[in-house]
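Honest question from a wet-lab person: if I give you the sequences of every part of a complex, can you actually get the arrangement of the whole thing, not just the pieces? Trying it with mine:
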Amino acid sequence: MNYMHVDYSTKIPNNVNLSEDRQVLKALEGWHPGYMNWWSDMGPDGFQQSLVYLRTAYSVDPRGWAKFDYVKMPDYRWGILLAPQEENRVIPFGEDFGKPAWQEVPGEHRAMLRRLIVIQGDTEPASVEQQRHLGKTAPSLYDLRNLFQVNVEEGRHLWAMVYLLQKYFGRDGREEADELLRRRSGDADSPRMLGAFNEATPDWLSFFMFTYFTDRDGKMQLHSLAQSGFDPLSRTCRFMLTEEAHHMFVGETGISRVVQRTCEAMREVGVADPADIAKVRALGVIDLPTIQKKLNLHYSLSLDLFGSEVSTNAANAFNAGIKGRYRETQIEDDHRLQNATYPVLKLVGGEIKRVDEPALTALNMRLRDDYTQDCAKGMLRWNKIISSAGYGIKLTLPNVAFHRAIGEFRDIHATPDGVLIDDATWNRRQSEWLPSTADGDFIASLMTPVTETGKFAPWISPPKVGIDNKPGDFEYVKIET
Ligand SMILES: [Fe+2]
Ligand SMILES: [Fe+2]
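Yes, you can. This is the full assembly:
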């Protein structure tokens, strides 16, 4: 079997030899029309007949896996792509540490594996649903194209999880695959499984924050699942990570460009105080304090995706060899964690304190800490733009106790600095820290679409380089009307 090149001869491009796996091919072909219906109902609103300059995977070779071309989104070749099988791979953690990785689902871990795959799978179409209206207000064709690239790849990630369900979980896998097309982000009766994936993404600043913070939670989860002793899951996640990197690039550079434009506009007219919101907004750009509020919102919502700091589910998944730690194989320890401890932030006697917990039950906390470290890199880049423009304001990550709905801090209120406050103070002051309706209305007022090639909305700077090294006036989307 050739693992590196993708077979485009069947309806479903793949590198898993589907043409010789008739049963699974049939199951996937049976699921395909439902997927296309979902895409047309819940995928990007409009633009389905536009030619979009998209990258499509044609191999899983990390040196050159993608080609770029104009594609109508419904014609995008969603496929099943797994990273190459590593010879003699062993289970890198847990009770079966060092034994050969499983090529089939181990019976005793079946339910746990299926649940993890379904949860991961559910997030993929959810974000497409959340972002479906954004095409109508894109600040440029470049950004419009990036949105659609993210959307088609999230669709492919759904295919990736559905393949695992169809191939390895029989009848209940097929039922779960159907359910993934039935739930809807934000639906009162049939919502998506995780909180952040039921929130609205009302504007482009939210989109950039989402791809920076929430897609990065996805990165951390995929890294942990890429360690899995269940080899097909590991290989699937490894390839998904190559696509995920672009989503976070869109977020990081998107926020950079917003910050850049705001700083330029302030300098042009000599605004001395970047916290003078009225003055900055009058320039038609998004003031830095409002960017901070959006950041507070999306970071705190994304922290909730890691679940409770102390979790027996996480311990069980690790013991079972199903879900490991971030960069598990690079950690130097016994990979079993039977006696290790890990410091967990907890509420103790009304104060936030670090308390040592068994490392096994503290795995969610550990992954969340790794996530926070990863998030901090963006602050450095954005703050450099601000300081280079001569301003002293700094964007910061709020304290992990701020605005939480899950885990240790769900029942208390804290300021972004981590000071505990009572309900009355929270109610009085929360609009200082989270976007208010007025903030949302102001941002919405800037969201007028720009569809001329090479032009950008006045609240965002152009990117430093084009996609696929295209020049600044490249027509990334040929809009049909
Ligand atoms: Fe994804
Ligand atoms: Fe993503």
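Two things worth pointing out. The first helix runs from residue 22 to 42. The CA atoms of residues 78 and 156 lie 5 Å apart.
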